[in-house]
């Protein structure tokens, strides 16, 4: 692509994004679930465990089990066709009802891609422990066609000869609030956006989660990291911040609206976690390479089901590929290189020692 063609393409993308942002993307608030949810519904934080909350690993197991769709609703905001599903998981330890945000892979476009939600969930695991995660548990799933068409009658097969709809599930954070609603409720002090200096100094949960969230949005070069991508949730330890829309990341295209609001793809917080920075320093080329294979689905009975292979499929550098009856999903070679490069750039900052919170 010539420089002139690239410039024209970016200008066209910018025009589309500006037009989209100019429109109203808010809908009525999300109603109650179709059937009562199975407690607990809150995601565990540091030093917490069931029955007060669910751990990310437990939630991933629920999402990887056989799932029954109970309802499908529009999300309160957004323009990319995401839905909120009420699901019944037929898990080995008994049925569990929960909600998850769902977006089909077929809804991808030149600006955003649902697979990157799963990719971002994996990137954070490079430097965060399970109880520190700032992106809710996310998995790949392929709903059986007959089940999915009860809610989307005109849905097409994701792959020829495979009767299922591929997409990505992100655990729905019940009782989470947007930045706007959190400020209205007094959870955030006066100011703009998700940033609150007073809370950063006084609330450990807020400080850790907002700094780790900022580190993540930097590493993935988030292309649309504005305030509406953050939600906040009260926990026994304090106010936790989560990053819940990462489909426009791991690339070079930015939402032009970032020119008019704070862009969290750069480092904004005054201090980063020493633990997180130390973990980044210990990463090897093999750690980054493993991002090429973060999920695997196997063809069974005409559909695709999640599997945990003893020998993960090697990545061919593409984000998705088939190896016989197994589908591998991960980051592309260029996406892995982006994360590795931004990690190196951060670790080479002259002010890193001053930026790292001891």
The chain-level structural class is: alpha+beta
C-alpha-based Rg, rounded: 20 Å
Uncertain stretches = 1-24
Distance between the termini: 46 Å
Number of strands: 14
Succession of helices and strands: HHEEEHEHEEHHHEEEHHEEEEHHE
Total domain units: 1
Give the DSSP E fraction (strand runs of 2 or more residues): 15-25%
Q: How much helix is in the residues?
A: 25-40%
Shape, please? globular
> Please, what is the average pLDDT?
89
Number of helices: 11
- Describe the main β-sheet briefly: 5 strands, antiparallel
Read across the widest sheet, the strand sequence of neighbours is 1-2-3-5-4
Tell me what you see in this structure:
This protein is an alpha+beta fold and 358 residues long. It has one domain. It has 11 helices and 14 strands. The strands form 4 sheets. The chain has a 5-stranded antiparallel beta sheet with strand order 1-2-3-5-4, sandwiched between helices. The N terminus is likely disordered.
Topology record:
Layout: H1 3-22, H2 56-64, E1 66-74, E2 83-91, E3 94-104, H3 115-124, E4 138-144, H4 145-148, E5 164-171, E6 177-178, H5 179-184, H6 197-202, H7 204-219, E7 230-235, E8 238-243, E9 272-273, H8 274-281, H9 285-289, E10 295-300, E11 303-306, E12 320-323, E13 326-329, H10 333-347, H11 352-355, E14 356-357
């Amino acid at each position: 692509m010539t420089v002139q063609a690239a410039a024209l393409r970016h200008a066209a993308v910018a025009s589309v994004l500006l037009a989209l942002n100019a429109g109203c993307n808010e809908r009525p608030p999300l109603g109650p679930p179709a059937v009562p949810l199975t407690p607990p519904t809150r995601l565990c934080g540091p030093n917490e465990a069931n029955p007060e909350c669910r751990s990310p690993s437990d939630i991933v197991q629920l999402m990887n089990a056989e799932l029954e769709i109970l309802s499908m609703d529009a999300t309160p905001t957004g323009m990319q066709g995401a839905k909120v599903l009420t699901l019944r998981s037929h898990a080995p330890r008994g049925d569990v009802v929960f909600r998850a945000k769902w977006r089909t892979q077929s809804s991808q476009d030149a600006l955003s891609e649902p697979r990157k939600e799963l990719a971002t969930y994996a990137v954070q695991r490079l430097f965060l422990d399970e109880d520190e995660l700032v992106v809710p548990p996310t998995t790949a799933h392929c709903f059986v066609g007959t089940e999915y068409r009860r809610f989307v009658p005109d849905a097409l097969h994701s792959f020829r000869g495979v009767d299922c709809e591929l997409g990505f599930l992100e655990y729905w954070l019940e009782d989470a609030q947007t930045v706007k609603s959190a400020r209205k409720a007094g959870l955030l002090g006066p100011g703009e956006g998700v940033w609150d200096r007073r809370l950063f100094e006084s609330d450990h949960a807020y400080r850790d989660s907002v700094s780790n969230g900022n580190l993540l949005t930097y590493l993935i070069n988030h292309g649309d990291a504005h305030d509406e991508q953050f939600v906040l949730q009260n926990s026994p330890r304090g106010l936790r911040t989560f990053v819940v829309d990462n489909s426009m990341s791991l690339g070079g295209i930015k939402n032009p609206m970032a020119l008019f609001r704070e862009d969290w793809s750069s480092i904004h917080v005054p201090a980063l976690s020493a633990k997180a920075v130390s973990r980044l320093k210990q990463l090897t080329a093999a750690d980054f390479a493993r991002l090429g294979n973060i999920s695997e689905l196997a063809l069974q009975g005409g559909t695709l089901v999640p599997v945990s292979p003893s020998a993960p499929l090697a990545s061919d550098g593409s984000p998705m590929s088939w190896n016989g009856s197994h589908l591998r999903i991960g980051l592309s070679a260029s996406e892995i290189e982006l994360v590795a490069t931004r990690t190196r750039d951060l670790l080479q900052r002259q002010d890193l020692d001053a930026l790292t919170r001891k």
